[in-house]
Amino acid sequence: MKYLTDEKLLIVGAGGAIGSNMVQSALMLGLTPNICLYDIFEPGVHGVYEEMCHCAFPGANLSYTVNAEEAFTGAKYIISSGGAPRKEGMTREDLLVGNCKIAAEFGDNIKKYCPDVKHVVVIFNPADVTALTALIHSGLKANQLTSLAVLDSTRLQEALAAECGVQQDKVTNCYTYGGHGEQMAVFASKAMVDGKPLAEYNISAERWEEIKHDTIQGGSKIIKRSSFQSPAYQAVKMIEGAMGGESFTWPAGCYVNCDKCGFKNVMMAMPTTIDATGVHFSAPQGTAEEMASLQKSYEHLQAMRDEIISLGIIPAVADWAKENPNL
Fold this sequence. Notes:
Order of helices and strands: EHEHEHEHEHEHEEEEEHHHEEEEHH
Shape: globular
Number of strands: 15
């Protein structure tokens, strides 16, 4: 089997449902044979390792560990799902404090054991703030770390396809930006459905509000089962882009400090491309209503950021460069 690279990919939280699916997806897509499975729960990560061995992927060189130094040392790419999951009735934001503490330790491990890592994807919630925390603690450049945000856009795409009676990939240019949470901004004014503008489908204002609400609440709707296959696959596709494979062009959470677009010192979903040179973003373009929604989402992200600053999990914005000179 031909792999995209032979460099080490570390899957953090590999003993869980998302992590185990990431391992399998990375091998099935032929990203790298050298994958390290890391988790603090030995029976879980050991079991996933055995399962992957039993798949008998040609050329696979798997390892597993519960030791952080062993896991992070030599890693060139990392995906982390290593936070606490949402439970029924919880929002992503309810996980803020505990998972940001985990993210701080995660970033510290990167700085200590693999400072030459090429790209990191953070997917545990609230991903915008956990990723920001990890970035500050890791010492990495802003274009080297991204967070998962694509699922909001693919859920919007799914909803519009069902509403218009077309195959899902016939719906294009519909995205969500800003926060990956209850305050995300839905952009669909430029959406196309099977080659025609969405406006031609005459969706009522009431029905459109229902679609937006369902998109925003998309993750919570399947919480009893727990979403794991879609975040695993999309996170692996993000790291594939960073490895030099197919570029990832759905929205990703990235560090934004942009005077021109008016958003500063936050991680947020933007129009992005992830390739071998890292993540690159542009400013969203939308209607006045869409841009107002994005501004509201940005302010919500600022509030969450300021909360973890007040708790001492990350320093004040003015002191970020002391922790990470690349910011």
